[in-house]
Amino acid sequence: MDVLSVLFRFLHIFSAVTLLGGALAWRFGFLPGLAALAPDTRSKVENAAAATWRPLVLASVAGLLVSGTWNFLHKTGLTPAYHAVFGIKFLLALHVFAVGIIAAKQGNPNRARQLTGVAVSGTLIVILSAVLRWISTK
Can you tell me whether residue 108 is helix, strand or coil? Predict the structure, then answer.
């Protein structure tokens, strides 16, 4: 087994878990917990969390782009069905990247809605990844 292929597969999975897991935890755990705080305090805590999370988002996006490119270029025998599903997955990934970065901006009043979008698109990406794995083993 090629060591680089294993390394890039690990990087891809780890980056995806970090990005999607962080968005899910923030949207469905952290934000509802902040509802009990006063608006001033809530805003300060939310902005501090956004500042902390932003480097993780950027690193995850970079990790996914690098590892995803490596993984795709080293696959052989891809069918038109694989390419179609991959195209949809890639467009959803671009949505997750852009909205994840925007959601991590300071003073963002639409953060909850944006993180919900990341969670939905991210979940669809995981489903499509399972479909791609199934297609590539047929």
Answer: coil
Predicted confidence (pLDDT) per residue in 98-109, tens digit: 999 999 999 999
Question: Which tens digit of pLDDT belongs to each residue from 5-62?
Answer: 999 999 999 999 999 999 999 999 999 999 999 999 999 999 999 999 999 999 999 9
* HSE-up (13 A, CA, CB side) for residue 106: 4
CB of 132 within 8 A of CB of 85?
yes
Q: Is 65 exposed, middle or buried (0-12, 13-18, 19+ CB in 10 A)?
A: middle
**How many structural domains are present in the chain?**
1
Range of the domain at 87: 3-137
Global confidence as pTM: 0.90
